[in-house]
Structures are given as C-alpha cells and as structure tokens.
Write a sequence for this structure.
C-alpha cells in the first residue's frame, strides 16, 4: 500500500480578514487545499517572524509590491530559503512607463518564482521591463474577478437589515467606490501617490483639489436626492498601517447624512450587488460592476492625469450638473448615455481582455498551476539568518494583544500606529469567509467537472490559451 505524501505546508500573510486581497487569495488557497495536497495557515502581515517559527514550504501573498509589509515578507522568506507565491493586487496598471513595478523593492530583485499578470498587455510590458525574467512572467488573469462567476451575493433586504436600514425608506441605491485620496494624510500614503504620479510632487496638490471637488459633487448629490441611499465604500488600502485618526478622503465627511452609508470593511461585490447604479472616480470596480450587470458612471472633475483606458467604455461626468443629468437619465430609461452603443460595447470587450484577461472563473486555477510549479521546483535559495527585529515585533504584539484597549493604546508611542493590528489580530471573520468560498467553489467545480479533469490529468492542459501554455 502506497503511503500518501506529506502535505505541503503553506503560510498565508494578510492584513485583513475580508476585502479585495483576501477574496483574491481564498479561491487559490481552497484549490490548493482541495487538489494540491496543501495545508494553509494564516497570519497577520506584521507577524513576519512566523516564517522562522513555522518554516513553511511556501509563503503566500496577494502582492509583493505596494504595501511595505508585503515586500518585507517576500524578502525575508526569500532570505530564509522559502519559495514565495504571489498574485498581483492591482494588475490593471498603466504600461506607459509611469508604473513603478518595484515599489519598495529598491534592490529590484524578484522574490517570487512567477509574476501572475492579469493580461497579455501587462505581461508584454513587464517582459520589456525585465528581459532576463521573461520565463517567470505569466498571464493567469485577474483572480479576484472569478468571484463573479462563482459566488452568491448578499441580497438587498439582507444587506440593509444588517446595517440597520429600512428597505422601504429609499427608492434608489447608488454605490460609490473610493479611490484612496486618504493617502494624502500620512507619509506612507503620500509616498505611494508620488510613485503613482512618477515622482511629480505637484500632483499631490492637484490630488487634494480633486478630493475636494469630488467631495462637493457627492455632497450636492446627497442633498439633492434624499430619496436615494448613497453607499460610499472606502478604498481598501487607503489607511492600512497609517497613523490613527479620521479618514481624510472624499467621502468620510458625508457619513452623518441620513441617506448615507459609509463602509470600510464590507466586501465590494456585496455593495455592488445591492446598488442600482455604480459611481467611481477611477476604479477597476467599473468592470466588476459590469460583470454583475450594473452600469457605472465615472466622476472625474479633471481628467488630465495618467490613467488607464478603462474609462473609455463607460459614461463620464465632470461637474455635478452632468452627474445629476446622467443619473436621472439612467433611472428614467435604464441606461446611462451611450452605454449600450456598439462603440461602447466593443470598447468594454477590449478593455476586459486588456484589464484582467479572462472572465470564465478559471483564473484562480491558472494561478494555482503556477503555485503547483512553485511547490514542485527544487529550492535554489541560500539560507540566511532571520532579523531579530521581526522577532521583537512579533512577541511584543502577541504579548500586548490580550490587553488591547483603544483608549489606552492610542496614547502609547509606536503602538498608537498599530491599532489596526490589534483590531484584526485574530482574523476572526476569515473562517466564515473561507466557508462561503468553499461552498460556492464546490458548486462551481461540480458544474465544470473539475475533480474529473484533475483525476484524468487534463485540467492544467485545457485551461490555457494556446499562446500562454503552462509548460
């Protein structure tokens, strides 16, 4: 009788128990648990010392750039001789040279075995940028978009009831996706914005002007339409690990209006599902809303900034008067101006392909194929000592967590900038979210005959575009 091989031990780092990055990783994690003989433990991104404690077979991340802690985790795992598998959180980036692929990684060293690009467009750009690593740059599609082929979403009555709102009080619901203007309020955020604007410092002042203009447009809309519930969703990375205090974005100041629901933690797809119309400044959620059958209006006071071509497939307004006119047309006719014109439809088809590659629900399986290859490849990394700093941070936070009191900790230097850590330390909502995905993924796998294809050995052969093989 053959002995079953020991499971691969994976360690997943996350800075939250819900939201974009978590819901991007969960399908890959469940597939690995279900089909790749893996066990996965999860910890907060501040617990970098867990790499030394657990010595996993692989470290999992939603991203290795952007957030500084993600970069540190990838670097430390690499130094410890542990393979890194990562997705790309914001993969619909500009390919005009203004996108800073390396971020905090000033050594410009790849720590992951593969870069999982959302599209051929971004893959081709990174291949030009990294000509010596083209064999590691792959197109898997945007994994986070699989949810629109897999998940069940919360219905309107349940959503409103959960937030203590009367479903009969509002005749319309408009959702708005925040852009991340709150990054202006803290040094790390300003650094990220400078990278976004290719180190043009004048753009920070311009961004503040845009924030104020959007705030005024939203304010006018809320005052003009008391019959409409405005669900304003904060951007997920706006104030992660930032200094404590109120949100300095384009919508937090509006949260006390009776027809406003300001949300920080809710899943974006549940918010989109209950909305009649979706508003954005600049966001790939426009495509996600489109996949859910929702129309999107871009509200951009000044369009003269480096941006993707995403907006070309949608209606766009500059001033409140335009926003109001287009919105009223939508509620009167069911369509924003020219939304279903042949030109807009064709542009959205091209944008979807250029933005996240595939919309068939298989992107997490494509990504899992490269996780499989990462696990099967022999390690070639040198093993170096682990930083004592991360050990001290780990034990300090672990010791303090049972005594957490926001009122007291807010007065403590260094600790007062880590309040988010104590709020999320136990990732208490993650098991429930994992169960939700497991249930919906099993239904998807049954429908698509995934277990049979895995058993026959054909799954990883059949999911690839002829131009993007997994070999």
């Amino acid at each position: 009788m053959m002995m079953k091989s020991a499971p691969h031990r994976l360690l997943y780092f996350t800075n939250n128990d819900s939201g974009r990055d978590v819901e991007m990783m969960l399908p890959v994690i469940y597939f690995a648990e279900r089909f790749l003989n893996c066990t996965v433990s999860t910890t907060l991104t501040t617990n970098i010392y867990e790499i030394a404690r657990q010595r996993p077979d692989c470290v999992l991340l939603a991203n290795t750039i952007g957030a500084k802690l993600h970069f540190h985790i990838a670097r430390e795992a690499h130094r410890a001789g542990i393979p890194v598998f990562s997705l790309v959180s914001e993969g619909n980036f500009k390919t005009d040279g203004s996108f800073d692929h390396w971020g905090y990684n000033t050594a410009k060293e790849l720590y992951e075995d593969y870069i999982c690009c959302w599209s051929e467009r971004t893959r081709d750009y990174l291949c030009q940028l990294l000509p010596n690593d083209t064999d590691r740059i792959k197109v898997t599609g945007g994994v986070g978009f699989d949810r629109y082929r897999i998940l069940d979403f919360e219905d309107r009555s349940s959503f409103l009831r959960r937030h203590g709102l009367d479903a009969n009080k509002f005749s319309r619901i408009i959702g708005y996706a925040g852009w991340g203007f709150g990054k202006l309020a803290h040094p790390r955020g300003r650094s990220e914005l400078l990278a976004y604007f290719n180190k043009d410092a004048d753009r920070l002042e311009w961004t503040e002007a845009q924030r104020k203009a959007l705030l005024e447009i939203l304010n006018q809309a809320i005052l003009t339409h008391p019959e409409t519930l405005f669900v304003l969703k904060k951007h997920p990375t706006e104030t992660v690990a930032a200094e404590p205090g109120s949100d300095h974005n384009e919508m937090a100041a509006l949260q006390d209006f009776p027809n406003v629901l300001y949300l920080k933690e809710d899943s974006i797809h549940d918010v989109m599902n209950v909305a009649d119309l979706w508003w954005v400044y600049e966001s790939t959620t426009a495509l996600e809303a489109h996949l859910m059958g929702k129309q999107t209006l871009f509200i951009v006071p000044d369009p003269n900034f480096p941006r993707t071509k995403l907006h070309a497939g949608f209606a766009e307004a500059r001033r409140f008067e335009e926003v109001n006119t287009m919105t009223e047309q939508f509620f009167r006719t069911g369509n924003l101006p020219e939304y279903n014109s042949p030109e807009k439809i064709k542009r959205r088809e091209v944008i979807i392909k250029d933005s996240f590659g595939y919309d068939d629900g298989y992107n997490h399986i494509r990504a899992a194929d490269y996780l499989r290859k990462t696990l099967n490849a022999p390690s070639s990394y040198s093993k170096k000592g682990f930083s004592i700093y991360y050990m001290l941070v780990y034990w300090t936070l672990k010791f303090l967590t049972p005594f957490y009191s926001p009122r007291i900790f807010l007065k403590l230097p260094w600790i007062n900038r880590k309040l988010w850590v104590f709020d999320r330390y136990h990732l208490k909502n993650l098991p429930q979210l994992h169960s939700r995905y497991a249930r919906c993924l099993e239904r998807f796998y049954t429908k698509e005959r995934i277990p049979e294809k895995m058993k026959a050995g054909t799954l990883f052969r059949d999911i690839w575009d002829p131009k993007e093989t997994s070999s």
Notes: The chain has two domains: 8-142+360-462, 153-356.
